[in-house]
Design goal:
single chain, alpha+beta, about 15% strand
């Protein structure tokens, strides 16, 4: 399986993924991540994961990079 990254609105080969030195997350270590379990091509407890992601972003006062529905579409494209 090839490794894929989602950077600046595009799926790209993992080896080409990079972060700008000016990225706030890089400079100040601001960041949030969520790990998703996938079984039979389905994300397990998707709403629970997205709720935790929303909460974590809110606590750090980080704006979501896209609307929840758009994120769901992107996640389903990956799976």
């Amino acid at each position: 399986m090839s490794r894929v990254a989602y950077v600046n609105g595009q799926f790209i080969a993992h080896r080409h993924a990079g972060v700008s030195i000016d990225d706030r997350g890089y400079q100040f270590a601001d960041g949030v991540y969520e790990v998703f379990e996938i079984k039979n091509y389905q994300i397990i407890d998707l709403d629970g994961h997205l709720n935790r992601l929303d909460y974590s972003l809110s606590e750090l006062e980080i704006s979501p990079p896209m609307a929840r529905n758009a994120l769901i579409i992107k996640l389903k494209q990956i799976v």
